[in-house]
Amino acid sequence: MANAVLKTIAALEAELPAGRVVRDAESLAARRHDYWGLQAVLDRGPTPALPPAAVVRPRSTDEVVCILRQADHDGTALVPWGLGSGVCGGVLPGRDALVLDLGEMNAIVSVDDESLIARVEPGVRGSDLEADLQGRGLTLGHFPQSIAVSSVGGWVATRASGQLSTRYGNIENMVIGLEVVLAGGRVLRCGTTPRSATGPDLKQIFLGSEGTLGVITGIELALWPRPDWNKGFAMRLPSWEAGLEVTRELLQGGYRPAVLRLYDPIEAQRNFAPWFPEPAHLLLVLSEGRENMRQSLELEIEAALAACLAHGGTNLGREPLDHWMGRRNHVPSWDDLLAAGLVVDTIEVSATWRNVRALHERATAAMGEVPGMLQASGHTSHAYSSGVNIYFTFVGQATDPVEQERIYRAAWAATMEATLACGASIAHHHGIGRVRREWLPRELGATGIETLRALKATLDPRGILNPGCLV
Hints:
Structural class: alpha+beta
Distance between the termini: 25 Å
CATH architecture of the largest domain: 2-Layer Sandwich
CATH class of the largest domain: Alpha Beta
Largest sheet: 7 strands, antiparallel
Number of helices: 17
Shape: globular
Helix content: 25-40%
Radius of gyration: 23 Å
Strand order of the largest sheet: 15-12-14-13-17-18-16
CATH topology of the largest domain: Uridine Diphospho-n-acetylenolpyruvylglucosamine Reductase, domain 3
């Protein structure tokens, strides 16, 4: 272990209240990495991830300032930690780094029910925040699959999306203000109103920065009244193109259903087997809002039904939609899948309407050519007037960790190459971490990467914040 990190640990143990610096084996082992599928594979082989030197658990912005000032002085790496639910390798500290665990900063500081703004600390669990808001007759409208195991700070740091984003927007549409501690202990506060024109929006620098530019210590979020009415259906469609056209027509027609998800035949059969004994495409549609909006929401559902029927759809009623709503956050663990000899992951990308058809065809074909691949499929889950995301899923088969790693890396490479070849974006909402890092320069270009590096050099000149991630 390097002398710098030992010096930092000793200094923080002296400066911070007792119990803030944690070094027991269980705590260190639990924060070796995030929920990255590849690291789960590597942990089964001869080179598992090493634990950090220590975990530091601040309870206030002032304590974060103290930690960052000391770490910057000593040149010690700090890796911010929310709840560890990231899936792209954004957390991989190693033995010469400290994990900055923000889980103790988990207060819902205030809720302004007139302006509909909540101020929260970064370690608030997503499901706890939503439960509190629901009790007040409100909602954030942000429902990632990881809502019960992810933090609000993590949502901001990875530029997250929720399952109802087509109606409520993504996290960047919800963040009104941020408090961020920069390397060296400087505190930046940006944004307190719905919008301002005071130069570039500094909040956007930290949305998606994955802990590399600063540590988020406070977040202000725009809220919605809690919906008390909804209506939806599931539709069997004759083709992927038909489903895309329905989705495009609705979004470009000004409609914003909360759920608008299109599954290709492999995904439909895997997730909705009782309704799909034979391969076919599936579209789920759900509109929701307040009872006083019912008339306009009914029109939205009628428009969606008409578009589906015009493209050859068969109405399956609401039952498949309710099936998804009830099971949407249930996923098997990496360990269970790997123990069964299955190498599985999802890869979310985004594309314009003009290139999304070619992207689905090209990426699934490329993944399908990987030796050991059993299935390669996709579904859409976040739609815009200009385009849509695709969530690709691959399932490979191998029991040997070396073979499992080969399949995993090859599937990701195939998808990234296909995405770039189609002029699409390599990430929609999970971030870059380490899994996408080598392809980022090709999307951003040399000038884009230079700009990111210039930001890093200005905000974190010693490079102590989450080194190795993003850039």
